[in-house]
Design brief:
The chain is an alpha/beta fold. The chain has 17 helices and 15 strands. Helix 5 links the parallel strand 5 and strand 6. Helix 2 runs antiparallel to helix 11, helix 6 runs parallel beside helix 7 and helix 12 packs parallel to helix 17. Bound molecules: pyridoxal-5'-phosphate (PLP). Pyridoxal-5'-phosphate binds next to helix 4.
Amino acid sequence: MAKIVHHRDEWVARAREILPAGGLGNFDPGVFIRKGAGLRVWSEDGREFIDLLIGSGPMILGHGHPEVLEAVSEQLPLGMTFFANNSRAVELAEEICRAVACAEQVRFVSSGGEADMFAMRLERAHSGRDLILKFEAGNHEMSAETQMSLAPTRPANYPDAIADSAGIPDSVRRGILVAPFNDVEFLQKLLDQQGDEIAGVIVEPLQRIIPADARFLRKLRSACDRHGIMLIFDEIVTGFRLAYGGAQEYYGVIPDVCTLGKVIGGGFPLAAIAGRRDIMADFDREQVGAEGFLMQVGTLSGNPVAASAGLKTPEILRRSGTYDQLRASGKHIMSAASAALDGAGHAHRVVGLESLFDVVLAAQRVTDYREFIAADKAKGDRFNASLRSNGILKAPGKLTCQPPYPKMISTKSRARLIQQQVPCKSAFSAGGRSSNMQLEFPVTWFWPGPGLQTVHERVSKGTEWYRTLGRCVSNAATWLPADAAD
Ligand SMILES: Cc1ncc(COP(=O)(O)O)c(C=O)c1O
């Protein structure tokens, strides 16, 4: 029988022994989460955090949302996985096609990275061309093709790609071209020179926190059309977040194919490739023949438990006013953070859109990766460390806001959160140290959740929660050590 361990240090020691780098490869391995409820998580050593990580995006409704739990509980006794068609998966695919403009058909996989990998293979299969264009720092996760110029420490000359990981053959690297994000002139020149060799382009419409310029996306769309290039939007993050119909609804630019994940799995492993029917036909041997067929099989693809949670999540999100509230909440934190940093004399930019953004400690504008890495990382780390030490779960590179779950945050907890602002000062004075991050992004992400008018939530109280968070951010800004002020 497994030994019961209650102390974080013991868990850290056990993990170090058995897991490479002592962790699961995602978040700071020193943080052990025991449970989550609503907007909070508790660590193995009994600390309570406001969870702004939200599982890196999927938990947009918070932990243990009662309606999602109910949907999952109804499915569990009926079966957890079949490796066969099931009605929940078909219903989820239908909802995706109703919501997302480019989606006429859907293929389910188990992770966002897998979806991106197959979407890129689809570009090659459909066009018969080999080259793929991505943008510097665009994150399409961990396949060999996508670990290219994701977080380069020594930027190369465009369009040369740099592999971010060991173990990637140079032949793969040579199949990828890299362009600067948001640079219309570079893009047009490159496509004029090599457009007819390029199978497809993959782009995050919101690159981590950096919004695409709408003109850039429109020019990208028309250049792809001109050269017969397939355009993929990686909407793993933006899908059902920027708007119900994702970034393509938000920007009014429709790709040929998109990838979706996070929200559509409701906290379970589920992701999807969704796109034009004639392109998706490549997954169907009967339609395209053995030569054109793109083989894709996955044991857990479209599993009914994940599909049940995934189906319930958009159902809740599409209720009236949700996205307005999500944006209003984000706007509130953006301006609270900005006013606080301004007041304390710290040069900064709040980068992103209301539904996903971050504070970057930089004086100059941030429209691409190279401008982003010019920010003051040490100062950003101190800002982030202060939030963590004051009960806000975050990572350097990802700090996500949870939806307000006002009924699940007691008056006592609120009072404690306000009191906790006092130690912010000492955390900053000590120059809080950042934890280990998979990608060395020097800033945090805020992912505001919507103020949901569900049975147990009221929008007005949700706003109060964001005010509390805003105050903590303000204090963190005010208490940055004077010698670090600009
Ligand atoms: C834009 C983007 N694409 C793809 C992925 C990969 O998703 P997953 O972690 O489910 O493989 C991520 C993960 O954070 C992402 O941010």
